[in-house]
Amino acid sequence: MKPERREILVQILNEWELKNKSFDWMDDAVCKGTDTSLFFFELGDGQKEMAAAKAVCVTCPVQQECLVFAVDNGFEYGVWGGMSSRQRKAWRIQRNKMRKAR
In whole angstroms, how large is the CA radius of gyration of the chain? Predict the structure, then answer.
């Protein structure tokens, strides 16, 4: 991502009321520069679109950071960290149970 585009993105994200404001991982994301419609497709689109988005995530070295960022900030739409919103919700519930068990 070009430095000026990254600065604009970080500025926009900083304006949101995010709980997790760690953006450094984004520089290493495989999806960087990819058309976002791949990850944010229309509701009702099929498994084919979901599989295409997840295929990008599988190869990403920052998949876990992306997932945590989305879950921490309550992002409900799109594919983040290789998971759908339903999968992220289940992952968050499991993570919270594990934290409480400690």
Answer: 14
